[in-house]
Fold this protein.
Amino acid sequence: MNTAELLVDRLIDWGVEVVFGLPGDGINGIMEALRTRQDKIRFVQVRHEETAAFMACGYAKFTGRLGVCLATSGPGGIHLLNGLYDAKLDHQPVLAITGLQFHDLIGTHTQQDVALDKLFVDVAVYNERVMGATHVENVVDLACRTALSYRGVAHITIPVDFQEQELKDAKRSKRNVPHHTSDICTPLPLLPRESDLHDAADILNAGKKIAILTGQGALGAVLQLLRLSLERLWLRTIVHTRPAESDCWARVLRKRPWKNVTLSLS
């Protein structure tokens, strides 16, 4: 089992089913690990790395799941940035995986020698360089958990030779306990201050012609939103939802057959 295989297996454990990317010699090890696991995880090849990042962001937006994109070293990784800034500004969980030059050529001005971990500092909520087979499990777990919990971009980059390093040949430090991380994620609660809730209630109660535009702040609050708009405020309600949430809305409407609701799927 090598570093790239451990990486892909960990992505599968996190429920990742698709990776968007463009092959390159800086990610040969990862591409081979994806090829040998194509029955469990799908690789969607694009024509430009920027497209891969936008597709990963779109996937996260319309499924609510972690989007993953993959690019080679140097300019390949640089091309991801446009799509990743879209994910950052729209607060979408996206994991970007890139390659690096051979570990003993980093910083020597060799071909495609770009320190992508430094380049991604601004766009990512988690950003780390994998330094071998004993390091990858911890980093992938933290990257996936951080992207999902903080709804942002995580980035991991791996030197091309380390991608094929066998776990049995790698020496683990005495503080690095095997399997001490997990594939469990608890999203952070986004709760407003109680005083802000009272202020909002006062505004709604005083209003005469009220329109409520709800976005991602209402994720997971389907029933509460309908009760507020229909039972308390008697509003005509138009629900514009993502496909990932449409089943939830439909179940709510079947249980409580309100008549003043229009359901719109994005």
In short: Strands lie at 18-21, 42-45, 67-71, 94-100, 124-129, 153-159, 237-241, 261-265.
